Amino acid sequence: GGDDGALAGGYVSDRRLLRVRRLLQACAAAHGRGAVDAVDCAAVLPHTLWSEPAEVPRLAEWVEGAVVPDGGAAQLRYLLDSLADRLEDFVGSLEDEGTAAGEEAGAIAAEAEALAEAAEAAAAEMRGHAAAVAGSASHLFLERDAAIRLKQRLAPICAEREAALGEVAAAAAAMRDALRDGDVAAALRHA
Question: What average pLDDT does the segment 10-25 reach?
Fold first, then answer.
C-alpha cells in the first residue's frame, strides 16, 4: 500500500516501519532518553529490516554509513561565501556610488549572526552524535565487537563534521563582529 518504502534494495512495508519506529523509541527509553540517537539506529535497524538473514551485514554497513547526518557544513559554507560576495559588492557600491553604509552592513551582520547560530547549533547536534558514538560500548542492544567497529568508523566522521561546522560558525561570528565594529576589511578576511 501507499507509502511503502525501499531500503538498501529491499522492500520494507509501512507496518514494519511503524513497528521499527516503536522499537527504536523503546530502545531510547531503555537507555533513559526521550529521543532516538544514531547508535540506537545502528543497533536496531540491521536486525529489523532484513528479509533474509544474509542481508544483516549489508544492512549494518548501509545503516552505519547513513546514520550520522552531514550537518550541512557545505551548505552553510556556501551561504557564508555568498555573504562575503554580497559584502564585496557592497564595498564596491560604496566606492562607486557612495551608498548609505549603515543599513546594508547591519543587514549583512544580522545574516552573519544567524548563520553563526545555525552552524553552532549544527555543531552542537554533531557533538551529541559524537557522544552517543563514544558511549556505544554501553549500549544494551549492541554487541561489544559491533560497538567497537561503530566507534572506530563513526567517531572520526563526527569529529570531521563538527570541526567543519565549527569553522563556519567561527568565521561567520568573526564577520559579524567585524561588521559591528565597522571594520569591513576584517569582515572580508574572515569569510
Answer: 92
